[in-house]
Amino acid sequence: MRVPPPALLCCSAASLLLLLLRWRWRRGLWKKVKEARQRQERSLVQMEMAVRRFREQHPSVNMVSILSLPLPELSRKLQDGSLPLEHVFYAYVGKALQIATETNCITEYLQESETQLRKAKQTGKLGLLYGVPVSIKDSIDCEGHDSTLGFIKNLNKPAAEDSVVVQVLRRQGAIPFVKTNVPVSLISYDCKNLIFGQTFNPLLYTRTPGGSSGGEGALIGGGGSILGFGTDVGGSLRFPAAFCGICTLKPTGNRLSKKGITCGVVGQKAVVTAVGPMAKDVESLALCMRALLCEDMFNLDSTVPPLPFNEEVYSSTQPLRIGYYETDFFTMPSPAMRRAVRETKQLLEDAGHTLVPFELTNVDYVVFNFCFRGIFADGGTSFLKKFKGELDKSVRLFFWLAKSPNWLKTVLSWIAKPFVPRFSNIARSMTANTVDEVWSLHHEIEEFCRQFIAQWKKLNLDVMLCPMLGPAFGIGYPGKLSVAVSYTALYNALDFPAGVVPVTMVTDEDEEELKGYQGYFRDWWDRTLAKAFRGSVGLPVAVQCVALPWQEELCLRFMKEVETLVLKKNRTRVPLHEDAVMAGLAAGFGVQGESEVSSAVVEHFQSLSEYSIFLLSESLLFQVCVCLWVWGGF
């Protein structure tokens, strides 16, 4: 019998040892995931028990009326004592539980919020947000809780202290009560990670809520939070707001403190990150900014300019001179997106404002050379380190390119250029840069910003009306359509404040017109984008409202004007007509016909907990089902 040589035995033993170590390492990761999911489940149980106790002690409290109050009115009632703190708090804990059960948007219940509630009752009415329950994105530090960014390796590493934003919120009387889900790394506008899984859009469960502040979008869009906080590094506040039919403001990068907030790509300066609020209406955003732009914010973080909220600018009624464009000539807008801008433009003109066409140029250069190249300036090295052992399919293209040597990226870019120019640009933008090249890139961005502002000033503009990508894509599509961030990423590169306001819904006519959609490049991405837009009748579509740096109050004033005009126009119209509701429910449950929709909804109810069913009885979805029953669907 032939004996294997010692070298072969050593290699075999080493390989076996490596496999064993890798198995143990992965087993450790999945053990951490299991524990995190158990904590998430316990959080939901704690929420259910807390609300059940409250309901037993206060059976006559009308939670529906509390949940229907806009934030400014709710805040006034809390301040004057006409609405008890615990009534508001447990109304939102209960509603948040329902939306979490439906959409998987909450990662953790902050149980210390109940302690803060009791202390607030004892200390009295302090702060503009006294007694207001607020939700917090995963990546924003709350003392004693993880900020995972969707990475398993970040589990069981609780923050040592609150972020500055959370500290100021607490000092203003707000009560942070839940943390919400994000996509892994935050570099995505979907909302899925290996720890907590996929978050769903509350308007249609087959659609993404957007990202990376997707948990916030789903929770607020479903009515489970009246005010939430997220971050934006390419559209991460604006995508969820647009996809879930709510409002948001991405401020200038340093208008609000980012101390204690973890970014997806640490250190890069090309694409500016911002932290901002999300809410159902613009007035709520304004109240939030009033509360945050205070001495506490400026003292806790001296890098934040001491600029209090400018009430005079926000409350002005002077006519505005508004630039606008319908397309950036890079991502072809859906018919609904184009119509949203045109209809909003007409409303603004009818109200006495002046609308001026604005011509965008070189957006493709901004996307690839400023945004992609800026984020991956190191060739993707830091990106690879983050994803070691935790690869998500939504970033496989970037992961594969990041692993490739520079020469291969260059060759791929050269070969693909005549056939797939956008892939060619992505490959080229992910090559490693020297320090000199990074400095040159930053200089280019500064020069582009100066030219953009010069064009703005030449037209004597106050603000800008822009398209916002939408409607909400199907689950998984954002990972295939990373190039579609052009409408939002532009204003991160420029570092301009930008807000989102929902203005319309997809119609049957939009859906019919979509059949002719081809895109500007007519490549695989354009064909995929057309598929992502389809089957969206009844879903919300928004516009972006943009101002120059440090002019958040003017941006909010413009957003408020748009919101007011749209509400006035729709005052006599039902927001969701019967066909849109039926189409949405049918698509969401993957069935056809009223009877099948009705059965599917009943099965969905039966799969929920007893308390969630009680909450659903107070929800829009339940009211829709009652209507179906009246029409003979059951």
From the structure above, extract its key features:
single chain, alpha/beta, Amidase signature (AS) enzymes, eleven-stranded mixed beta sheet, two-stranded antiparallel sheet, 27 helices, disordered C terminus, Endocannabinoid_amidase, fatty acid amide hydrolase activity, lipid degradation, Fatty-acid amide hydrolase 1, amidase activity
Write the CATH homologous superfamily of the largest domain. Answer: Amidase signature (AS) domain
Please give the share of residues in helix.
Answer: 40-55%
- The CATH architecture term of the largest domain is Alpha-Beta Complex
Rounded radius of gyration (Å):
25 Å
What fold name stands as the CATH topology of the largest domain?
Answer: Amidase signature (AS) enzymes
Largest sheet: 11 strands, mixed
Helical run tally: 27
Shape: globular
The oligomeric status of these chains comes to single chain
Are there runs of 5+ residues with pLDDT below 50, and where? 572-582, 604-634
Tally of domains: 3
Give the terminus-to-terminus CA distance: 77 Å
Can you walk through the features of this model?
The protein has 634 residues and is of the alpha/beta class. The chain folds into three domains: 23-309, Alpha-Beta Complex (Amidase signature (AS) enzymes), CATH 3.90.1300.10; 321-361 and 457-569, no CATH class; 580-630, no CATH class. 50% of the residues lie in helices and 10% in strands. The protein has 27 helices and 13 strands. The chain has helices spanning 6-57, 63-67, 71-80, 85-103, 112-123, 164-171, 214-221, 238-244, 282-292, 295-300, 311-315, 335-350, 363-375, 381-387, 396-403, 406-416, 421-429, 435-458, 477-480, 486-493, 508-513, 524-533, 552-569, 578-589, 594-606, 610-616, 620-630; strands at residues 106-109, 133-137, 175-180, 192-193, 197-198, 228-232, 247-250, 274-279, 321-324, 354-357, 463-467, 498-505, 540-546. The strands form two sheets. It has an eleven-stranded mixed β-sheet with strand order 1-3-2-6-8-7-12-13-11-9-10, sandwiched between helices. A two-stranded antiparallel sheet has the order 4-5. A hairpin with a 3-residue loop joins β4 and β5. α16 (406-416) packs antiparallel against α17. This is Fatty-acid amide hydrolase 1. Keywords: Hydrolase, Lipid degradation, Lipid metabolism, Phosphoprotein. One of its GO terms (molecular function) is amidase activity. Belongs to the amidase family.
